[in-house]
C-alpha cells in the first residue's frame, strides 16, 4: 500500500499542465472530496498498527506534493500569461457611465441664487409644513383677513394651525426673527395651493423670495435690484412696476418685464402686450417688521417673490407645468447640457 502511495507521489511530481482547466482536473483528482488522497485516508483503519506511522507520513507527503504542485503550476501559468490573457483587452471601450441631468427647476433656481449672490444676498430656507403665524399672521394677514382667501390653503386636518406654506414669504418672517439687519437674503422653495391642476397651474410649485432690510432702503433700491435681476436672467432690462396690493408690503407692485413682440412666441407669451408678469414686490410693511422684532423707525426694506416654474417654462420652452413633476426621463434628459 505504501508503495502505491509512493508511486502516486512520483506521478504527482512528474505532472505538468499548461492550462487552468488541466490544473483544476489534477487538483480534483488528488485533493478533491472523492480524490485519491481521501481514498488512501479511508484505508488507514485497515493498515496494521506497526505500519500506521509510516503510512500516515507517506500520505501527508502525497498531500503536500499535490498541493505544492497545484500552487506552482498556477503560478507558472499566471506568470507566463500576457496581461491580455489575465485582464482581457485593456483597450476596449469601458462601460458607458450614465450621467443624470439637473431638473429645469434646479437649473433656474441655481441661476437665480448665483445672480443674487453676486450682489451680496445669501440663501435661506424654511419648512414646507408651516404654522399660521409664519405663513399668515406675522405677514399682516390676521385671522379672518379677506386676503387669506387669495391663497387656497392646504390645512393639516387635525390642526388648523398647521398648513402647507402657500408662499415662501414665510421664510422672510423666520429670517427676520432670527437675524438682525442688515439682511440680504433669498429663499427658494416649494409652495402649495389648493388649485385645479392644468397646463398652466399646479397644486405645488416653486418661488424665490427676496428680502433686503437695512437703514434707508428705498423703493428706488428695489427697482434697481429687480432690473439687475431681469437683465442678468433674461437679458432684458426694461421693467415696469404696476401698483398692486399685498398685505405684507406697502406700497406693493406687480413686476412686469418687457419681453418684446418680435416673434410669434412673444405674442403668445405676453398675450400680445409685450409685457410679462414675473412676480410681486413692495416695501416691507412696518407691521411685518414689528411682528418680527425689527424696529420700523430704524429700518426699512423691500421684499419680492417670483415664481420659478413659470420662469423655467419660459427659458426652456416648456409648455405644460405638469411635466415638471412627472419624472419622465424623456423630458428630464433634455436638460443634460445645462448646469
Ligand atoms: N407671496 C406673494 C405670493 O405668493 C408674492 C410676493 C409679493 C412676495 C410681494 C413678496 C412681495 O415678498 O413683496 O403671491
> What is the C-level CATH assignment of the largest domain?
Alpha Beta
Number of helices: 13
What is the spatial order of strands in the main beta sheet? 1-5-6-10-9-8-7
Question: Kindly state the mean pLDDT as a whole number?
Answer: 91
Cα distance spanning the termini: 79 Å
Distinct compounds present: 3,4-dihydroxyphenylalanine
Per DSSP E runs of 2 or more residues, the count of β-strands stands at 10
Brief characterization of the structure:
The chain is of the alpha+beta class. Helix content is about 40%, strand content about 20%.
Task: Provide a descriptive summary of the structure in words.
The mean pLDDT is 91. The radius of gyration is 39 Å and the shape is elongated. It is α+β, with helices and mostly antiparallel strands and 339 residues long. The chain has 2 domains: 2-87; 104-335, BirA Bifunctional Protein, domain 2. The strands form 2 sheets. It has a 7-stranded mixed beta sheet, sandwiched between helices. It has helices at residues 2-14, 20-31, 36-43, 49-80, 83-87, 104-117, 132-135, 169-178, 219-234, 264-269, 286-291, 308-315, 329-332; strands at 122-123, 129-131, 155-156, 159-164, 183-192, 204-214, 239-246, 249-258, 275-284, 300-307. It has 13 helices and 10 strands. 3,4-dihydroxyphenylalanine (DAH) is lined by residues 167, 169, 209, 246, 249, 280-282, 303-305. 3,4-dihydroxyphenylalanine is lined by residues 167, 169, 209, 246, 249, 280-282, 303-305.
